Amino acid sequence: MKQRMEPHSSVRRIATLQQGFTLLEVMVAAGVLSVGLLGLAGLSGMSLGKNVDANDLSRVTNIAADMAERIQNNRQRVLDYHNTNTAVACAQSASTQRMALGDCVQWQTLMAGSGLQGAAGVVTATRLDPDPTANPVTMNRFLVTVTVSWQTRKSDVSTVRTKTAVFTTMVAPE
To answer: Cβ(63)–Cβ(121) under 8 Å?
Structure first.
């Protein structure tokens, strides 16, 4: 007698023959995964470099704000800070410009201890209004520019380059 097959038994037999993945499917999945991981590794290196740059910029901002606050604190003698440069010796006089000289020395120390490579700062102060001796009605305002330059660190994804940040503020004596 001929045995009759039920439709369910043929489906079971096909299902038992096709269990698991083939070697080709596993290799394709591993290739897709490795391409994704390589892209992620590249992004993490770039992200680390950008974090270092952001940290440096935060330090530079704090250093420049420190000097701007020092000048604001001594606003009656703003021109004493003109051409202050951390790369050279402080030019202020110890007898007539004592506070500006102390601020310059402290700013040089702060710049040297900042951890920034090749850090240098320059301050310029320019009178915006006419000379108050000739025109006593003037507001006697000054434009103060604090410029800080430094070198970025070399990493796997970037080269060493010089960066400059310029901060400007207006100072008016009371």
So the answer is: yes
Q: How far apart are CA 159 and CA 155, in angstroms?
A: 7
Would you call 70 helix, strand, or coil by DSSP? Answer: helix
Q: Taking phi first (over 0 means left), then psi (-120 to 50 degrees means alpha), and beta for anything else, what does residue 173 get? A: beta
State the residue for tokens 């070697």: 23
* Residues 171 and 75 sit within 8 Å (Cβ to Cβ): yes
* Backbone phi and psi for residue 33, each to the nearest 5 degrees, phi listed first: -65, -40
Q: How many other C-beta atoms lie within 10 A of the C-beta of residue 111? A: 21
Residue whose pair of structure tokens reads 């698991």 in the numeric block: 20
CA angle, corner 122, sides to 80 and 67, nearest 5? 65
CA angle 140, 75, 80 (to 5 degrees): 95
- 62's enclosing H/E stretch is helix 23-73
Kindly list the distances between the CA atom of residue 127 and the CA atoms of 85, 101, 131, 145, in Å, as whole numbers in the listed order.
19, 20, 8, 12
pLDDT single digits (tens) 65-116: 999 999 999 988 999 999 999 999 998 999 899 999 999 999 999 999 999 9
Which two tokens mark 117? Answer: 């490579």
Give the C-alpha separation, 124 to 69, whole Å: 14
User: pLDDT tens, 145-174?
Assistant: 999 999 987 766 667 889 999 999 999 877
